[in-house]
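agent> call fold_tool(seq_1)
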Amino acid sequence: MNLSSHETKLLLSVIESLTSDDDPPDRRFSAGRGLIELLRADYFASYEWNEGWRCFENGTSINMSDDNLKRYEEYFQFRDPITKPMQRVRRAINVHEVMDRSALSRTEFFNDFLAVDGLHFGVNLHVYDGATPLADWRIWRSRRRTDFDRRDLEILDLLAPHLRNATRLARRIAGVEASKGLEVTIGRIQALGGLSARQSQIAYHAFLGNTDAQIADKLFISVATTRSHLRNVYRRLGVKNRVSLCHRLSKPQDFDRRVGKADCICG
C-alpha cells in the first residue's frame, strides 16, 4: 500500500498515541483524532470489551453527544444489530458487509441512535487476545460523504496490532496493580457483608468482571461450587445478580460505615 507523507505522519501519530503514558481511554481518544483525519471521517467511538459482563465499557468518543453515548451504553448496545457480527470477524469491516444499508435504515438502532448524531457510513475494527475480545474502533462518516473503501480497511488492519498490544499491556498493568492490594480488598468486602473468606474472594473476582469459569480456574474450585458461593454472596449482600453486586461494591459509603473511609474499595 502506498501512503502519502501526510498519511504516514498521521498513521505514526496514531501509533504514538497508543504507546503514550495516558490512561487507556485517553490513548484511544488521541488515536481517534488521528484516525478521523487519516480516514477522512467525521465520528469516532471506542470501547473495551468486558468478557465477564459480556458488554462494552470504558467508552470514549469524538463528535458524538454524551447523552446519545449514554443511551448506547445503557440500552442500544443490547439491541445493536451490527456490532457483534462485526466483532466476530476479527478484522476491519464495513457496516454494509454485515447488514444491508436499506435494512439498517429501518431499525430502531439506526433511527434512534446512529441518525441522532448523523452517523451514516461506518467501519469497525475489533481486536482480540487469543479468543477474548479486547477493544474496538468505530469510525463513521456523515451522509454527505462517500462510503469507506478497501484501502481504508487495509489502513485499519495495519494498525490493529498496535491497538491489540496497547490494550493487552494496559490490562496486564491493571492486573498487577490490583493483585498488590488483593488481600486488603477482599478483607474490605468481607467486612461489608459478613462474608466468608472464600465468598469474599469470589465476590472480588466477580466485581472485576471474571466469568464463573475464570473464577473457578483462579481459585481451583469447580464452576458449580463457584455458582453456589455466588448465590450465597447475592443473598448476604441483598443483590440479585452481578450488575447489582457491582453497584453494591462500588458504593464508598458502605465501606465508610463498616471499615472506615481510608479502606474504601474505590480508593
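agent> call fold_tool(seq_2)
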Amino acid sequence: MKRFGIIALAALLVVAFSIPASAIENQFGGYWRTRFVTQQKFTGDDSGAKDLTQTDTRTRLYYTAVFSENFKFVNKFEMDAVWGNEAASSYGDIGADGVAVEVKNSYADFTVADMLRFRVGVMGTQHHRGFLFDDDYAGARLNVDFGMGDLGLHWIKAYEGGQGNDANDMDFDYYGVNFKFNLGDNMSLNPQLMWMYSKDGSGWGNDGGPGDFAAADKVNIAFLGLDYDADFDVFTLGFTGLYEFGTIDWQNIGGVYQGPFGPNVKDSDVNAYLLALNMGMDFGPIGAHAEGFYASGDDGKNSDYDGYWVPKGQSYYWAEIMGYGIFDEQTSAGSPGDQIGNIWAANIGASFSAMENLSLGVDLWYASLVEKRTYPDGSRQDGLGFELDGKITWGIMDNLNLDLVGAYLFADDATSLTGKNTEDPYELGARLSLSF
C-alpha cells in the first residue's frame, strides 16, 4: 500500500503538471505537525508497562484537480514518522528513507443538475459528531440540496469477503440515509438511519475490540439517530441521541453456538442507546463550555445485548488521558478511549484569550463505566476518575501554532488492569503544527 502511495502521488503530480493550465485548476494544500509527549502510569500502577516518551511527525499533502465548478478529483496523502524508529513504515531513523506514504483519500466529486452531488471512491465522513462514525472509508455518497435542507444517502463498504459463495457472504456493508434541515437561521436538525448488514460477520474484525463480529453469523443492526444544533452568538447548544436495535445470529460450530452468552444461545437482540449534550458560552475573551455523554452497557443478565455496540469507524475524542485528546497514542487502562460504549462522562471547562495570538484553556472531566467490569481477582469496578486538563495555544505566526498540554488523572479503581488502582496517570506534551 505504501509503495502504491508513492507511485500514485508521483503519477498525480505528473498528470497535474502536464495538462494545459486552461483545462484544469490545480489546488494544493496540507497539514504538518510534530509532537513531543510523555505519558506515564497509564496502566494505573507503577509497572511502567505502558510508559511512553517519544517525538513524532505527521505530514498530510492534498491535491485536488478542479475540472469545473461541478467536477473535481480529490486526493490526500499521509506520511508518519516516530523519531528514531527504524521500522520500514517510518522515515524517522538515521537516513530517513522509510517507505511511509499512505493514501488517505482519492475520490471523484461531481454535481449533476445543480442539486445532485456524488462522491465516489475513498473519502472521510462524520456522522453524529463521531458517536456513530468518523473515519475514512471506501464507498459512495449522494447529497440532494433542497435549499432549506439536504438529503444524504451513503454506502460504506466496511469489509470485502472475496470471491466464492462463502467468502462473498462475509461482505459487511453500512447503508445510511440522513436529512439535515434548518430551523431558521440559528437551529438545525439532522435525523439519520444507518443499517449495518452481513450474511456472515465472522470474517471481519478478529481483533477482539469493540465492533468485533468474529463469533457472529448473520448481523442485522440499525442505528436511528438525531442531532440538534443551535447557535445564538453568545450561546451554543448541541444534542445527539442514538438508538441501536437489531439482531445478531451466532455461529454454530459442531452444534455449539459461539456467542458470548453461552453455547445454547442461538441469537441475541440488540437494544442500546447513547445520549450526548454539549453547550458553550462566549463572552469575548472568556468562554465557558460543558458536555456530557451516556452510552448504555450490558448487564449480562440475559442473552439480549443492551450495551451500545460500538461499530467500527466510530471515533469521538474527549479527555486528554481517558479519551485520546491531542496525543492519541494510548488511553488510560479501563477507558474505552474514543469508542464510546458502556461509559458516562461529564465535563466543564473554560478558555481565556490573553492576547490576540495566545489562549489558555482548562477542563475538568469525570468518567465512569455504566456497568461494572469484572477483574481477574473477582472484584468489580466502574469508576475511572477525575481528569484535569490544561492547554496553552500560541499562534507563533500565520498558519503556525504551538500547543502546550498538561493532564493529570485522579484515578479510581477501574483505571487499572487488576481492579485496584495504585498510581495516577499523567501526561505532558507539546505540538507544533501548520496548515496551508
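agent> summarizing second result for user.
The chain has one domain: 2-435. The mean pLDDT is 92.
agent> awaiting next instruction.
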